[in-house]
Amino acid sequence: MRHIVYIPGLGDHFDRLRRLALRTWRRRDTRVTFVPMRWNDQDETYESKYERIASAIEHIKGDEIILVGESAGGAMALFAFARNLDQVHRLVTICGYNHGAADVHPSHRRKHPAFYHLMPAADEIVSALSLQSRRSITTVYSTRDTVVAPQHSSIEGAAKIALHTPGHLTSIARTLLRGIASTFSAD
After folding, report:
1. What's the CATH code of the domain at 148?
2. How far is Cα 112 from Cα 120, in angstroms, rounded to an integer?
């Protein structure tokens, strides 16, 4: 049995739509847990957000765990992946802002401080990932994303799925609605 732990990006107001789309990912052999990040909470640290993911992982027994991080959730999923390498089978990011702290817009320091402060840690994690760990990662990105550039999604040594859908939200919505089941298959 596969168990997908879904970590959303910024835009907490889209969580209802995300949950609705994720219902189509559930199959007889697949469970899905949505972990809200509450990125708009100015007082919560990224460590506190991670604790919700860690709790979700801890409650999954006997299933193959797949972390899926969307947009800013890509960096959070990388953080969780690095801390749970012995429990997580795969990591998939969808238009993930996986690294590139220097390029994060300064407005995020005020609007989404947990994301802003997470990014240097994500950069360190990406640079320290072993080749074996990189082989457990798939990055789904759009070549026409104007919010998260492909170079911030791509991780050297990881599998890559390029979409040619215009726009960030459109690419995420496409992936959510169509699913990406083929990326969840075991190596």
Report:
1. 3.40.50.1820
2. 14
In which domain, by residue range, is 62 found?
2-184
Strand order of the β-sheet with 30-34 is: 30-34, 2-7, 64-70, 88-94, 137-144, 159-166
- The total domain count for the chain is 1
- pLDDT per position as a tens digit, 32-77: 999 999 999 999 999 999 999 999 999 999 899 999 999 999 999 9
pTM confidence score = 0.94
